[in-house]
Amino acid sequence: METIKRFLANPIVSGVIGLLVGIFIGLVILGWWLFPVKWSDAAPVDLRPDAQVALLRTCIDAYGYNGDAARAVECYDSLGAGAGPALKEIVDNPATQNPQMIAAFGSIALNQGAPLAEGTPQVGAAPTAVEGPVAGATAFPLTNEPSGQAASKGGLPSWFTLLCVGVLILVAIIVGVILLNRFGILKLGGTTKTSKEGEKDQAEPVNYVDQDEPPISQNVSSYKLGDDLFDDVFSIEADGQFLGEYGVAIADSTGVGGPKKVSAFEVWLFDKNHIPTTTKVLMSEQSFNDPSRREKLKTKGEPVLADPNQPVILETNNLRLVARIVRREYSEGAVGSYFQSFVLDLKVWPR
């Protein structure tokens, strides 16, 4: 879990993840789900073929009702290249419409409303003209907005949509505040060290001077046998700016049963401007003298013997961590195997 947190603390990684999350929310949730694109006032020529057929049927009924040849031609021409196939579909499948009315409409439309010459073939071999309304024809006025067009008019979002948008805005604000606090832009106070009062030794930092200038961060990490969830994390900040993190966690244990018999700890240093996390593994005497265990723990960091007389130094491009063992007690009856208690004094300097 801490590895993931350190990984996400990198500004480049956080920026890429934020970009991907923003694209997902904007495109999928908002664009396709909450506020999808809706067509309105589409021209007849842009309709689907089945909608063009439905519109042309309406025009035929309107022509049968009002006998307006000019409007019939206008309706037919508005379909563009789809007019011919739509008319053929209606001629082949008249359904409930009068075939003679379909033929008359087709003749008028194809001849652009001009009077037909005597003997000119007509669509469907129907009469060339229609005088007055045809019995049974539907009264359907022809307008500039075809009745077959289902224009979508936008209205106010539903309460559910408003609720979803509100939740998204709230989540965005929370994520933004967390990121601003993470990079030191917005200070919320507190510390990233997670421990319960009374669970660990209340050891004080050792007063010694490693360098000429004081450290920018200093903490004590304490472990006792039985603390199976031991994992300390400390933040590095200077002049209100977040620089990185460091901490101590359980790296390996030995034996079976509880509590966990810890035989190695990992000490790590994360620099926000240095992507790889620097890690060293402090091992008990028995573990360090076991080649197979040392080889196994190399995947976590450089194996080092937990020696109170030897400080452990971790460095990145911009930070230097010095860890000194204040207390190292092995469990009775298993000397050198696993720790009864372990206290580290940790100091960080800029490089």
Strand content: 15-25%
Number of strands: 9
What is the quaternary state of this protein?
single chain
Rg, rounded, reads: 40 Å
Whole-number mean pLDDT: 76
The structural domain count equals 3
Short summary of the structure?
The protein is of the alpha+beta class. It folds into three domains: 2-38 and 154-182, no CATH class; 44-125, no CATH class; 217-350, no CATH class.
Folded structure, characterized:
The chain has 351 residues and is an alpha+beta fold. It has three domains: 2-38 and 154-182, no CATH class; 44-125, no CATH class; 217-350, no CATH class. The protein is 33% helix and 24% strand. It is built from nine helices and nine strands. The protein has helices at 2-8, 11-34, 49-66, 69-78, 83-92, 99-110, 159-182, 285-288, 291-297, and strands at 217-224, 231-238, 241-254, 261-271, 274-283, 302-305, 312-315, 319-330, 339-350. The chain has a five-stranded mixed sheet with strand order 2-3-4-5-6. A four-stranded antiparallel sheet has the order 1-9-8-7, with no helix packed on it. The longest helix is centred in the first third of the chain and has 24 residues, at 11-34. It is rod-shaped.
List keywords for this structure.
single chain; 351 residues; alpha+beta; 3 domains; 5-stranded mixed β-sheet; 4-stranded antiparallel β-sheet; 9 strands; rod-shaped
Describe the secondary structure blueprint for this structure:
Layout lengths: L1 H7 L2 H24 L14 H18 L2 H10 L4 H10 L6 H12 L48 H24 L34 E8 L6 E8 L2 E14 L6 E11 L2 E10 L1 H4 L2 H7 L4 E4 L6 E4 L3 E12 L8 E12 L1
Parallel strand pairs: 5-6
Antiparallel strand pairs: 1-9, 2-3, 3-4, 4-5, 7-8, 8-9
Helix pairs in contact: 2-7, 3-4, 3-5, 4-6
